[in-house]
Amino acid sequence: MLNRDIVDIITGMALAAFGLIIAAYATTHYNLGSLQRMGPGMVPMGIGSIIALLGIMLSIGGASRPHFPMPSIEWRPLAAILSGILVFSLAVPRVGLVPAIFLLTLITSLADKQLRIKTVLALIAFLILVAILIFRLALGMNIPIFRWAF
């Protein structure tokens, strides 16, 4: 067991536990309904079950292959992506959708050293256009495009 891929075994077990917790919470707190008339707990229970199954499969795969060295953690992309998500979640209610998408894309683009500013600006414009088309026009959600909260 010591010469097995312990990282995949532990990660798979954690995923399986997380999925089981989601599925158990959904079945105990929400009505599942039936396959013809699904209740609000059917989708979380299904997703939790799929996550648990994938975690079990990852653990089995890790137990069946020999250990290989763990790669080093890339801190720059990790920090950039987590910071972008945090800034986006804080910015949407305060400044609106467009500035929040601008900040999210700008911050997360710092994860890649090779991105050019023209590419980032084109991506920002595309994401803003798609977000407005989907959330405001197609879904009719009342998300403020611009907001001055100060």
Automatic annotation (TrEMBL):
Q: Where are the transmembrane segments?
A: 6-26, 38-60, 80-107, 119-139
Which residues are in the DUF1468 domain?
10-144
Q: Say which domain of life the source belongs to.
A: Bacteria
**What is one Pfam family matched by this protein?**
TctB
The alphabetized UniProt keywords are: Membrane, Transmembrane, Transmembrane helix
> Is Transmembrane among the key words of this record?
yes
Q: What is this protein called?
A: Tricarboxylate transport protein TctB
Specify the species: Halomonas citrativorans
